[in-house]
Amino acid sequence: MPSTRDIKRRQKSVSNTKQVTKAMEMVAASKMRKSQLIATQSRPYSKKAVSVLEHIKMGAPDIKNLFLDGNPESKKLLAIVVTSDKGLCGGLNSAVIRESTKVFEQYKNDGYEIELLLVGTKSKPHFERMGLTIHETFRGVGDYVTPEEIKPISQFLQEKYKTAKFNKVIAIYTEFISTIKQKVAQRQILPMEKDQKVSGQSSVVSGQEYIFEPSPQTVLENLIPFLIDIYIYHIILESNASEHSARMVAMKNASDSAENILDELTLSYNKARQSAITNEITEITAGVEALK
Fold it and tell me: Which of 244, 241, 248, 212 lies closest to 25 in space, CA to CA?
């Protein structure tokens, strides 16, 4: 049995760890509430933007645009993989990496050449070991990202799509469901599909009619880059909300585990102390008996 001194030392160590995890849990909870609010409030806006695109495509089905038509002769895939820059968020990043690997295997079996654009650094070592081409890794888009901060990602994506002749651009990220539930989602960014979905909700085109000035083609050419910005922004918001929720739950579990360990250590300490006292009493009693 460990000595009381060893147990006290371990109690202090676990107590310090508990204080750290509790503080991280409170910080993550604060960030989680704000990021959840921003993510859920952005969904109707993203859905409506997709609906406007559908109106244009229905009103002028003969419009030609690279971001709508794609490069059908190409067999190149650009994948945006969104993870976090920091750890301590449970199995969130592992789930994204695991799902991405499965998706890439399917595309490879179909003859695709896969190239990556990473948002967050946690997946980079894994994909480097796989030998995949990584064009760029964007850092620092966690917490409360603004639309201006994602523009470099969107512009880089659009430029690569034009110059590298990709057949398809997809995003693999974590979709926020609730505080205790997040799921890995896959979404096609380019070419833009009909009936594009936003967080599981399909865009429904109403019976309203729009008049486009100066022309549907001109409106479309200006609208599509803006829509790509919205897609990327929404994806990152969902990932951020998921990250903070997962981190809060992970830190709460760590704090609860530390509390259980402290209870066990307290019980062990009391047993060790009781055993030491019993031994001392036995020795004193034996000494008294020897002096008689």
Answer: 248
